[in-house]
Amino acid sequence: MDTKDIYKGTTTIGLKCKGGVVLVSDSRASMGSFIASKEARKIYQISEHVAGTVAGSVGDAEKFMELLNVEASFYRLQNGKELSTKGITRLGTHILHGNRYYPYLVQILICGYNTENNKGEVYSIDPIGGVTEEDAASTGSGSLTAYGILESEYSSEKTIDENLRLGVKSITIAMERDSGTGNHIKAAVITTDGYKEIPKDEVKKIYDEVKRK
């Protein structure tokens, strides 16, 4: 099968903030020049304080996130506590590296809130299991455009609200410059209170404000 025939997700962002982390994505999945889906899911909750974003093959991404979710749930049942963000990341790298000869066609961000030191964490994982810890990370075809905004405006000392706005702004500009990025913007935050998806109308309000400037 030609890789152009695989549904692909496109642009996602993970940002450390004062008090947590922000995850933002678009919702388009493309197949070559064809828009295969306008409502592709790219942000997945893995546990109470950990979530991930995906870019790449939709099928591979769904299967990979399902594996992480099952393993995180099993760990919680066995040990009576959550698997840490770093632990889930390590598990993800083992899965991807173990399949390096038949790789998952994905780029992954694992984002979480460490309740022991009260800090956000963002890890970027490549398709064969290489991992780096970042303050701000973006994946997918629109990531170069997104990084252009993040490089000049991002700070880990900004609040959740400030970096949520920046994430929406970065995806908005990526949508204007990258044909594989588009349709709707979706967002979530992770704080000491856990994972929370931002309501559509809230994201739309931020989007409209960004577009006016």
- Count of individual helical segments: 5
> How much helicity do the residues have?
25-40%
CATH topology: Glutamine Phosphoribosylpyrophosphate, subunit 1, domain 1
Question: Radius of gyration in whole Å, from Cα?
Answer: 16 Å
Contiguous runs where pLDDT drops below 50 for at least 5 residues: 1-6
Q: What distance separates the N and C termini?
A: 43 Å
| Structural class based on helices, strands and sheet pairing | alpha+beta
Main sheet makeup: 8 strands, antiparallel
Order of helices and strands: EEEEEEEHHEEEEHHEEH
Question: What is the level-2 CATH architecture name?
Answer: 4-Layer Sandwich
Q: How many DSSP-defined strands? A: 13
Which assembly state applies to the chains in this document? single chain
Strand content: 25-35%
- The CATH superfamily title: Aminohydrolase, N-terminal nucleophile (Ntn) domain
What's the CATH class label?
Alpha Beta
| Inertia-based shape | globular
Question: What is the average of the pLDDT values?
Answer: 92
Tally of structural domains: 1
Organism: Candidatus Altarchaeum hamiconexum
Function: Component of the proteasome core, a large protease complex with broad specificity involved in protein degradation.
EC number: 3.4.25.1
Main location: cytoplasm
